[in-house]
Amino acid sequence: MNSPMNTAVVAQEANTGVAWDAVAAGAVAAAAFTVLLVALGAGLGFSAISPWSDSGLSAGGFRTATGIYLVLISIMASAIGGYMAARLRTRFIGLHDNEVYFRDSAHGFIAWAFATVLTATALGAALTHIANGAASGLTTADPQSNPQAVYVDKLFRSSNPSAPAAATSVAPQSAPNGATPRAEVLRLWTASFARNKDLAPDDRAYVARLVAAQTGLSQDDAQKRVDQAVTEEKTALDQARRGAAKLSFWLTAALLFGAFAASLAAVEGGMLRDGNWNERVLVPRTL
Length: 287
Fold this sequence. Notes:
Blueprint: H1 4-14, H2 20-48, H3 59-87, H4 97-121, H5 124-135, H6 149-155, H7 166-169, H8 171-174, H9 181-196, H10 201-215, H11 219-273, E1 276-278, E2 281-283
Antiparallel strand pairs: 1-2
């Protein structure tokens, strides 16, 4: 027979604010389910893209679908983690129903926070590898190459492809230290856009002279080609900036919905944890 002191100790232990073992179990389950859904989404996203212009998702539609899928991943994984964190906790003894409701919600929220940190740190490399693995099939470009090299290639594109030697014959005299005009322009282009997201007027004029000398274009046509290439890169940079901003908004929405789903699912799990079995039917605790 338990003494009053032993009963008080058991009640105090049972009413501990946070059942960390249950929270950790829910967080690990949420993180593992996140990896599963990300792998599934990477496969689905890759299969949704088609090289044909009249089939598959467009770039804008794919980005929107990716954002919605991120929200769904967060809701489903967080709900599982929150539910398990509350369902596996110890039974609360002698507490008001409102306090039990709050503690269940807190268990779900803490499990969501733990899973978020775990996913962003320990599983971050795995998620990036899965996502990049699917995206690598969309292009055959060398991942180590400078993405700005394509604009330099457009600058030195000759109107007479059958005579490629003309593009290199003047290289030693047109660039200092024996550097080829392409390499010099690529360094200049990369440095200028890294600093100012643009090509300075003096640099534009110099690049236009190099393009005119290498391609046989007039100075005015070479200048127009340089201006067009600069405009194309600035447009691409602006699209990348807006894409990053949209992704940040989708991630924020996913986190908020995940926190709410985890807390709500924890309330359900706690009601079932404190419920009673009526033969094969579990009757949850009433609010």
